[in-house]
Amino acid sequence: MDVLRQQLFNIIAFVFLGLFVAVWGSVLLRVGFWVPDGRTVAPPLNGALVTAAGVLATSLSSLTASALGFTIAEVRRDESEQDARRTSGPGAPGSSTAVNPSDVTARLSGRIVAAIIVYLAVGLAVLLLWLAKGTASTDLIGAFALSLLGWLIGAAGVVFQTEKRNT
């Protein structure tokens, strides 16, 4: 029982990520292997599958983005505190520099790193399918593909961010 207690968070993360991959894998397979039949514009998807896929994609996107944001804020706060201790006197200039990516990734748990990798891998597969199938894909595919692009733009903004030094 102690092993379960120690690994409870990892089990929850594994189940959540596994469910995400299974649901979106099902969507990808149904849309990917669907051949237009002249009667319908896109493959029909069960309402429960659409709802589950949407909730899982939105949840994982939010969880990973917030984890990254909070971790970056923690690193900045700690660097500011260190800078404040190094400066002497109340009027001494401080410096605000861009966050070192290795400091951020060192603080991310393995679960968060796994969630980001799973989200990106599935999201990129969805994006490629959406681009390949075009109008023969579903609105769900298009919505997730656009959501992934928004997430990537936000992440790229952090990755390529530069801050001016305060003087």
Task: State the gist of this model.
Keywords: Membrane, Transmembrane, Transmembrane helix. The protein is 74% helix and 0% strand.
Written as H for each helix and E for each strand, in order along the chain, the element string is HHHHH
Which percent range fits the helix content?
over 70%
Give the number of helices: 5
Summing up helix and strand content along with how strands pair, one would put the structural category as mainly alpha
Strand content: under 5%
> What would you call the shape?
flat
Number of strands: 0
Report on the biggest sheet.
none
**End-to-end distance, in Å?**
56 Å
Mean pLDDT over the residues: 85
Radius of gyration: 21 Å
Instruction: Outline the low-pLDDT stretches.
Output: 162-167
Region (Disordered): 78-100
Keywords: Membrane, Transmembrane, Transmembrane helix
Transmembrane segments: 12-35, 47-70, 112-132, 138-160
Write up what this structure looks like.
- With 167 residues, this protein is mostly helical.
- It contains 5 helices and no strands.
- The protein has helices at residues 2-32, 47-86, 101-107, 110-133, 139-159.
- Helix 2 (47-86) packs parallel to helix 5 (139-159).
- It starts with a helix and ends in an 8-residue tail after the last helix.
- Residues 162-167 have low confidence and may be disordered.
- Residues 78-100 are annotated as: Disordered.
- Keywords: Membrane, Transmembrane, Transmembrane helix.
- The chain crosses the membrane at residues 12-35, 47-70, 112-132, 138-160.
